[in-house]
Amino acid sequence: MVKAGLKPEPAVLERNFNLRYFGKPITLHGVRKWLIGESIPPYDKIIVLSEMLNIPPEELTFGLGIKQQIKEARARWDDGIGYQDREIFEAFLSLPTPQRKIVREVIQTFAKAFPAEGKTSAKSRSD
To answer: For residue 13, which of 62, 2, 22 has the smallest C-alpha distance?
Structure first.
């Protein structure tokens, strides 16, 4: 609120929000619940808050670290897959649904039979 030029008080947020929102107005009690984390506004109100405070809606909903977490997950996926694997994924996605189901089941069977290092089952450790 401070970065948006607003005094960080529930009454200020309530007044500014209700001036911008064309649905049922939010009460001061409702705003307080948002601010202390007891409730999360519905999506239509998050959009108005996002525009009002100049904050992406996903940050309001999931917190400041969400963009970094998504970026790290994408980087892990991009770094871990070579061009040959990408070709396989593209081929898989081009298959009709019944064939994709079969391929998925084959991969899951192999994954169970040959678990990744560090994820071995008790049975495979005893062999």
So the answer is: 2
